[in-house]
Specification:
By secondary structure, this protein is mainly α. It has two domains: 1-70, no CATH class; 98-174. It is built from eleven helices and no strands. It has helices at 4-7, 19-28, 33-38, 45-61, 70-76, 83-86, 89-93, 100-116, 120-134, 138-154, 157-170. Helix 9 packs antiparallel against helix 10 (138-154), helix 9 runs parallel beside helix 11 (157-170) and helix 10 (138-154) packs antiparallel against helix 11 (157-170).
Length: 174
C-alpha cells in the first residue's frame, strides 16, 4: 500500500496527479489531514503543492477541517515560499478563526505576497484574503485601501480585475 506522500509524487508542480484520490479518502475520514499539512514544506515541490491543494479542496467541503492546523499554518507562514503552496495558503485561512493579532499578522504576510510574489495566482488569492480580513478590522482597512489602489495601478490584468471586485465589495472608488 502506498503512503500518502508516495501517492502525491510524480509529474509537474502544476498537475494534480492522484490528488483527487487522496481528497476523496480524506472527505470520508479526515484523520489523515495531519500528514497532508505536514507535507506543505516537503523537499519535493510536487508533493508540497499537491498536499496544499488537497487541504484546500477538503476545506472547500469541510471548512472546519482547517481549524486544528491553524497554529501550524500561522507558525509556518513565513516558511511557505513555494508559489504553488502560496496559491492555497490564503484560501485555507478563510476557514480559520483567528485572534485579532493573528489576523493582522496573516494580513501583513498576504499583502506582502500580493505585492512581491511573481505569481499572479498568489497575488490574486493573497489580495482577496487580505481584503476579507480588512473588512472585519478598521485598522487593517485603513492600511488596505491605499495598497489596493496601488495594486490596481501596477498589477497584471487579473490583479486589476480582482482589485475592482474588492473595491466594489468595499464600496470604494479606485
Amino acid at each position: 500500500m502506498r503512503t500518502v506522500r508516495e501517492t502525491l509524487t510524480g509529474g509537474t508542480r502544476t498537475s494534480v496527479g492522484a490528488a483527487d484520490e487522496v481528497i476523496q479518502s480524506l472527505l470520508n475520514d479526515t484523520a489523515g489531514l495531519s500528514v497532508i499539512y505536514g507535507l506543505f514544506l516537503d523537499d519535493d515541490p510536487v508533493v508540497a503543492m499537491r498536499s496544499s491543494y488537497v487541504a484546500m479542496k477538503v476545506a472547500e467541503q469541510l471548512p472546519e477541517s482547517v481549524e486544528p492546523f491553524a497554529n501550524d499554518l500561522m507558525k509556518n507562514l513565513q516558511l511557505y515560499t513555494q508559489q504553488e503552496v502560496r496559491w492555497h495558503i490564503p484560501q485555507l485561512f478563510l476557514h480559520v478563526k483567528l485572534t485579532v493579532a493573528q489576523k493582522r499578522k496573516a494580513y501583513e504576510v498576504f499583502m506582502e505576497w500580493s505585492e512581491t510574489d511573481k505569481s499572479k495566482i498568489v497575488g490574486y488569492y493573497s489580495l482577496q484574503t487580505a481584503a476579507d480580513f480588512a473588512m472585519t478590522d478598521d485598522t487593517l482597512l485603513q492600511d488596505f485601501i491605499p495598497r489596493l489602489r496601488a495594486a490596481n495601478m501596477v498589477g497584471a490584468k487579473s490583479i486589476q480585475n480582482r482589485c475592482k471586485k474588492i473595491a466594489k465589495q468595499l464600496g470604494i472608488v479606485l
